[in-house]
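step: validate -> pass
step: tokenize input -> pass
step: predict -> running
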Amino acid sequence: MSETVVDDIVAVLPPLLQSLEALGFVARYLNPPDFGRVMEAAGQPDDALRAVRPRLEQWPQEFSDIKSALEAASDAALAAFEGLRTVQNGNGDLVSVFRALRYSPRAQEALYALVAKLPPVSEFFVEPSLREDSDLAARLAQPANENTGIFHDHNEPGSRGGFSLYVPEYYTPDRAWPLVMALHGGSGNGRGFLWSWLRDARSGGAILVAPTATGGTWALMGEDTDTPNLARILASVQARWNVDSSRLLLTGMSDGGTFCYVTGLESASPFTHLAPVAATFHPLMAETADAERLRGLPIHIVHGRLDWMFPVQVARQTREVLSAAGADVTYRELDDLSHCYPREMNAPILNWLRGEG
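step: predict -> pass
step: emit ->
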């Protein structure tokens, strides 16, 4: 690799990774009344990224794969900040903020293509507390195994009913692996929501499936076309990879979390653990659920005290109702969480799935 290309990578990567971390910070701490303060706390790493972005434009053709990945990731990160800055400057609304944040998973998807070529990129996609773990680093440094990495099955942007999948690069079929099926929020899609969990699945050794609802959101009313689709997706993954049938987690955010209850409380559900996040729940769900299914069912509830869409009192009531019905409920209430996805809870949820916490 030429010295100029190396210098350009060294110049571009730090502000790019810092920009992605800042976007993750905004997504985690977003609360409408505090938006200005959150943006101030996130800083301005996009300024540094914008300044060095032109360095990628004159690279030799032989490095086009690295160049195109860095360009796509940088441009998506800058587009996200452009949308956020517009709202910060008094133009736009909360919908505009959510629309801007959708560029963040696109940037991560583009960047992930470089995990095997650029060690700082690989480290970025490791849970921060495990970045000094030498055993994990050694596993990730090995050549990727066959049938590992990221796959998309009929899950292009705008499509419905498909799924995206991540299998850790160090997967081997000689043991059964836990599986996490993560359901996006309303109007979202699995291809984007995959990145809410990928860092932790990669670090913690879990197969990750992120489906997209068959309709505009999950089948919370009317005909349920999503439950059979999730069963189809799960069966297709189990047919190709060695999945631990005693560690099948169904989790989700907002509408996805609510659908965890809708489908996960059915007597025929294959999922062994449920982990709804920022979800709502109606007591009738417990009354109509199969009593045997509920008895001892591990359910891990995460909710924010600042949630403006589904007030925290709903989650507290849900804990009481499900516990009274015999479920084994773990409840975590986060004081600083609004209606956002708390990515820091993924590792504790994985430990809980394994029976380690």
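step: describe -> The chain is about 45% helix and 15% strand.
step: cleanup -> pass
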